[in-house]
Amino acid sequence: MPMKGRFPIRRTLEYLQKGDLIFKNQVKIMTVNYNTSGELSEGARKFVFFNIPQIQYKNPWVQVVMFKNMTPSPFLKFYLNDGEQVLVDVEGKDHQRIMQHVKKILGKSEEVLHIEALAKMQESNPANFGPKKYCLKECICEVEGQVPCPGTTPLPKELTGKYRTQMAASQE
Amino acid sequence: MFQVAGGRALPVARLLAPRGGARVESVRGRKSRSDPPARSKEGRLKVPPPVDPVEMVVLKERFTEYQLIMRALRLEFKEEVLRKKYEEETGSLAEERARQEAQEHQILMAWNDAENLRMLKLRQLRVQKETEEAEHRKQEVILQREQEMQTFIQEKEQEILQLQEEAKNFITLENLDERIEAALDNPRNYNYAIDRDGRVVRRTVLN
Known about the structure:
Helix content of chain A is 34%, strand content 15%. Chain A is of the alpha+beta class. In chain A, strand 1, helix 2 and strand 2 form a beta-alpha-beta unit. In chain A, helix 2 (42-58) packs across helix 3 (95-106). The radius of gyration of chain A is 28 Å and the shape is elongated. Chain B is mostly helical. Helix content of chain B is 64%, strand content 2%. Chain B contains four helices and two strands; from the N terminus they run H-H-H-H-E-E. Chain B has helices spanning 9-16, 53-90, 92-167, 176-185; strands at residues 193-194, 200-201. A two-stranded antiparallel ribbon of chain B has the order 1-2. The A-B interface holds A 73, 86-89, 91-92, 101, 104-106, 130-131 and B 19, 108-109, 111-112, 115-116, 119-120, 122-123.
């Protein structure tokens, strides 16, 4: 069964996950104004067609709005947290160049992403035991190959503190 | 210990809440509230388990010590977590980072503005060129129209001249008589055949 629509590869998870533009935390709204006809708007159209799904997938909390045929020339506008508006003119530019430009001015850099990935890995450290929300396991008894939980199967007598103190007391 | 601002209390409280909330519902078993106790339990005196005072004292001491230590440890860890969070958000390092980020942001915005200016200049040039070309084309069209008019006029003049030339050979009332006489004097014989190559045949058909 073939995929539906033009360039259905845009709808595959692999393609979406390949997107490498992650906005900084201040960026809240992205607005794209472009035209449906005209040579100068071609790059913007391609950008909307190919790159916007990737951007939205990687930034689910950023609102992306598209406006068609409202202005003679195409542009992008970003609205940041502190009310600042960033205008990017994309007339005549190629969609890859637009992507690079936006990544440079408002995307998280490689180092920041690396640090965030490390922090995330630290959080999911298998050596940490605690609530399910923060750690992978709550008790060592949940790990395969370890002593099972005494709540489900009683421990052998020799491992209980009660028996050991009795033995120690009887020996003295 | 609670250096946290009011707004951030909720997620922190969730972080430090005791885990595993005691949620045990009392199960009544087979009998409901109004059922009388069994006959075998008649005269039963519920007595708590006997307590050895010496052991109790010792146990109490040990327990207080143990609980003190455990509580202290727990509070220590909670405080560490809170402090880390506070440092992360409003510490001196965080301020440095924020300042640096703001600086970088400004640099990037300046670069973006420069790019926009460049695009603006290009666009102005392009628009100017387009208007010039449009003017040029309009002029060309006007010229062409004029040229066409000129040729048309010339053609018409040619025709007029030709007509004037031919008018000299017309038959008018003055030279009507002369022309009739001339025509009668020179009879023209149209009794000939002509083929596609232009060869004329003047022979009559032999019967």
